[in-house]
Amino acid sequence: MIFLKTDDEIELLRKSNLLVGQTLAEIAKAVKPGVTTGELDKIAEEFIRDNGAVPTFKGFPNPYGSPFPASICTSVNEQVVHGIPGNVVLKDGDILSVDCGTYMNGFCGDSAYTFCVGEVAEEIRQLLRVTKEALYLGIENAVPGKRIGDIGYAIQQHCEAHSYGVVREFVGHGIGKEMHEDPQVPNYGKRGYGTVLKKGLCIAIEPMITLGARQIVMENDNWSVRTKDRKCAAHFEHTIAITSGKADILSSFDFIEEVLGDNAI
Fold it and tell me: Among its keywords, does the record have Hydrolase (predicted)?
């Protein structure tokens, strides 16, 4: 069931999502060779709780195993999504996708950013740039009267034009009082197909794009998802609200990119 949000509810969603952006900026300050993903998780959880929210991901149920044990997802290199923070030490040349969720004032925030660790190969940086561009192309199509398929089509066409793979098994989603609401928002699709976009619909758009083939594998922890060919993957995500005009981006990369400066993708 799809729940359209009121203007007041959208403002509450904005607060939760801006906190996600600020949390990712705190992580950006710490991302460097030698840091563990577990250390980044500790930074995130403390910042979220200090700001009066709770990390949505911690304890999130898993139908195939144990609940998610951490406050952020940290996916390194060939990991696509849902990497579990721990003792993994970041190395020069790595890329790190950090997905973060908050719950505050009854509403959820959800956003993701892929960071470069030290000096990253230009081929990989290009993957990140194209994935981020695809996110914004999807957002451009998130206007009243268009359909979910228009968002996915825009993302898919841009990424496949660069010979990248578009992950099918994991998709974006509606968001509100629950982190995952209807409708699903695939990163592929046909123009003019799917749910009609209406004012008040709030969704998370999140391209998950691979340098090589799109096929993925679930690791033994029943959370971490990686590319089958072990080539790198990138992931960027914004939460948006459909308005009467262009989409209103409720999350923000501004805090992150202020920290990264010239190193921002």
Answer: yes
| Measured CA distances, 186 to 14, 96, 195 (Å) | 23, 22, 11
Those residues with Cβ within 8 angstroms of residue 129's Cβ, 6 or more apart along the chain or in another chain = 265
Structural tokens at position 258: 């202020």
Residues 192 and 185: their CA atoms lie apart, in Å, by 14
Q: What is the C-alpha to C-alpha distance for residues 20 and 188, in angstroms, rounded to an integer?
A: 26
**Domain positions in the chain:** 7-263
Residue 162 is labelled as binding a ligand: no
Question: Any binding-site annotation on 178?
Answer: no
User: Looking at the domain 7-263, which fold is it?
Assistant: Creatine Amidinohydrolase (3.90.230)
Those residues whose C-beta lies under 8 Å from the C-beta of residue 237, and which sit 6 or more positions away, are: 99, 110, 111, 112, 113, 135, 172, 204, 205, 206, 207, 251
Q: Is 206 annotated for ligand binding?
A: yes
Is 39 annotated as a binding-site member? Answer: no
78 annotated to bind ligand = no
Does 45 belong to an annotated binding site? no
Q: Is 262's pLDDT higher than 90?
A: no
pLDDT digits (tens, 9 = 90+) for 104-113: 999 999 999 9
Tokens of 214: 């799109």
Is 110 labelled a binding residue? yes
Cα-Cα-Cα-Cα dihedral sign, residues 170, 171, 174, 179: positive
